[in-house]
UniProtKB/TrEMBL annotation:
Organism expressing this protein natively: Palleronia caenipelagi
Name of the protein described by the UniProt record: D-glycerate dehydrogenase
PROSITE patterns: D_2_HYDROXYACID_DH_1
UniProt cross-references to PANTHER family, sorted A to Z: 2-HYDROXYACID DEHYDROGENASE YGL185C-RELATED (PTHR10996:SF178), 2-HYDROXYACID DEHYDROGENASE-RELATED (PTHR10996)
D-isomer specific 2-hydroxyacid dehydrogenase catalytic domain residues: 7-313
Amino acid sequence: MKPKVLLSRKWPAPCEERLSRDYDVTLNDADVALSAAELRAAMDSYDAVCVTVTDTVGADVIHKNQRARIIGNFGVGVNHIDLDAAKAAGVAVSNTPDVLTEATADMAITLMLSAARRSSEGERQLRRGAWESWTPTHLLGRGLRGKTLGIIGMGRIGQEVARIAQTAFSMKIVYYNRSEKPGGERLGTVAEVMERADVVSLHVPGGAGTDGLIGAEELALLGPEGMLINTARGTVVDEPALIAALQEGKLGSAGLDVFAQEPHVPEELRVLENVVLAPHMGSAVVETRVAMGMMVADALDAHFAGREIPNRLV
């Protein structure tokens, strides 16, 4: 009998086809997020449960006597999964690192360019028929060439953003990271990066250690001409402080792909012209999303074959 596997959301077709071939799979064709009660029931009914960032898998979902012995996470970040509870229950958790690096870095650069050149603002103006004429001062933006880019979290994605920024725009790189990394000047604190940089891009994982890392004080250091880019986790930034800084001109602009309470995006952010907003689509490239799903499938294959699970976190 094939192991029973649940996918909590709709996955790219090649991934669903592979898993349907190898396992007794339940697909989520409606693509609606599952409740905690539904996830807990799934842990009791399936041999493996495959989740995404939209699923909160806490201690109320994970327990010792459940049937599922592996949680395959479609994504790198796992702050939505209680890893301590999984470890205590003897449940393996895997994720999908590396394959998101280029796509997420590209998204950070996209937001950076859009915010700097005010392209989203211009498109909105054009679509509502408000563009009247070309003028020398219409929608003046800022160039990136020669500016200083600050990176908070110099992991794989942060390093790729630094590489693109240096290669394409000759940007100077400063960064904050727990260890030394190639590609820029390492500074001792987040505050130093915020103060030195023209643009700051966030690339730290979400969770207790980084929630609210960027607040009113840090944004004030970045300043009224500064730009904040976030493709990491929405909780890394104090969202009310960010809104206030943008409204009051204490921060120049922002490019956001993630939000504190997704899919809710505060109205105060949505009406601001100096913010570029995207619906958590940093890894939304066909090749990347397929690779993520295949990586989860590889982890399941290893688990059920009794082999070492690739990208195992607990």
